[in-house]
Design a protein that fits this description.
Layout: H1 6-11, E1 16-18, E2 23-26, E3 32-34, E4 39-46, H2 49-54, E5 65-77, E6 80-93, E7 105-107, E8 112-119, E9 122-133, E10 136-140, H3 143-160
Antiparallel strand pairs: 1-2, 2-9, 3-8, 4-5, 4-7, 5-6, 6-8, 6-9, 8-9, 9-10
Length: 161
Amino acid sequence: MLPFDPKFVSAIGKPLFITGRGIDISMPRGTPIVAVGKAKIIYSGPQAPSSCKSGEKVPGGCETKMILLKLVNPILIKKMLYNLIWYESLEKLVFKKSLTSPRIIKVKAGELLATSGAGLGVPHLNFRLLTENDGSIGAAMTETQLSSYIWAQIATTKSAG
């Protein structure tokens, strides 16, 4: 089991909520969000980029940001290889990258990516682990597996520190 970077784990020693779209982790707005592992940034920008151009008001829209990372060392759990990390409900981004940009942005484990924001007015971070299927986003880890995995990371980090 690849442990998450301790800087990331220390920020999530807070309640976790299953949402049907990953895990919402309660944290104050402005909490530093770091890379869980060595990765490449696939996308870093508005949560709903089309709403930025159209001016359409959608939940999250232009104000809320997200990041999609591709891990260098995927996480293997129950014969599934999870190599994509999705961070959502972010406020300030360190890096910006569109999906069509050929620029490669590499990040190290523990490197600052953004600060947490709020979704629908509630301060939190939405977090998901996903598979990649022929260059597209594939299956998401179930929320139950993800919350168990995160709690295991918290326990491992606390016992090591």
